[in-house]
Amino acid sequence: MISLQTNVTSLMAQQNLNTDNAFQSKTIEQLTSGYRINSSGDDAAGLAIANGYSSSIAELTQGVSNANDGTSQLQIIDGGLSNISTILDRMKTLATQSASGTFTGSRATLNQEYSGLQTEITRQASNINLNAGGSFNTNLNVYIGGASAGQAANASVNIDLSGANNAVDATSLGLTGTNVLGGGVGLTGGTANTQTLNDPNALFVAGGSQAFTFNVFSNGTAQTVTANVTDTSAAQTGISESSVVSQLNSTLNAYGISAGTDSNGMLQFSGGAAFTVGATIAATAGTGVASVGATAENTANNTLDGAAAFVTETGTETMQFQTSAGAATVSLVAGDTLANALTKINQATSGLGVEAVMNSAGTGISLQGANSFTMTDKSSVAAKGFFGAAGLTPQLSTASTAPVAGSGATSNGTAAIAAINTAIANLGLVQGSIGAGENKLQYATNLAQSQITSYSAAESQIRDADVAAQAANLTKAQVLLQTSVAALAQANSAPQSILKLLQ
Fold first, then answer.
1. Is the per-residue pLDDT at 121 higher than 60?
2. So where are the chain's domains?
């Protein structure tokens, strides 16, 4: 039907022209943005999936950055551990020197460096935050991402550096309390001295002197030796730690005894032979180097210290000594002096490794030996001697106590070596944990990068435009648009044909 009122053909042409124009606009939008989906209306379901992939990519990208930061931090820690390992090597060298019985130098000098290295280990451990309680002395959690829903625990790499076993300060490595001094005994009793020899602000025996009385078994004889510490300074203001030790050793070394200081700076003595020592400060002296009236025994040996004077009152006191090397019997008779008792005992026990010296008070006998021994009073009558006043039951027996660990001249060095060996093993375990952590982070990085690639490809399939297809569509859209415009022009001119009918 031909109609003037309604040009249906034109309307159809207009509709198709709008469709072709929208098609061309959408094609140009995809080509210029590069995305197939530019609004939710383009593909709502696809957009939701693509957004999930995009979120995972963002998470994993930051996760790779986290892993790289973690690896860098572990490498810093690893470098610090290598340096601490070098320090331990030096400490072992010092301990090995001290552990040698033929070492003739100053163990105090060795210990000064040794103690400084202990402090340096703790300082460096603190710098890399792997000291006890340090920020990295914990279970480190490095978030990488990439885990599926409900499996958040798999999104992190855990590197367990927690606990004392993973701390590398001197205390955690078991080095605190070790030293390479000649082992020995400190002075006890009397009035305590509140200053230590390594106090840089303190000087000792200012304007006076201090006498140390040693009862020592040397060259096969029990004898008494006095070693003096005297203020020889021009200003009489006191002497230093090194001068105190030097003055004592100038007298004592000839008797197999060495003076030194412990890790706290307190004076101590060591020796392979039996000895006891007492110290008194002269009335004119200033601050002493130890306690007033102090006493000590050589605990490098087993000790039985008799408290009574060894002059029997009646009859004969017979004592039997027993060691793994054999037995010996000693008889003390009425009238024997303390000196006679010492001579008789040492003559009888010379082959047993038991030595007798006066106790530090000078009123009794200290029996000492490198190995365990027993002494039994076999007297048939009571006597005042090892076991006290008359009237005690005969056949009394006692055994020596075990030697105190670390009290031999070389045993502190030997003990330090053992502690350092343990510290090296523990440090190796920590280094192993650090190395394993670096490897775990590298593996996690590799996986995350692989996931980023896979997620990116999946997102691209959904979101990205197919440029080749859209380029073809653009050509198609342009042709259709031009055709629609031409057809619309023809449709609009169609009603004019009605005028022919009216002519």
1. yes
2. 48-179+410-456, 185-298, 303-356+366-399
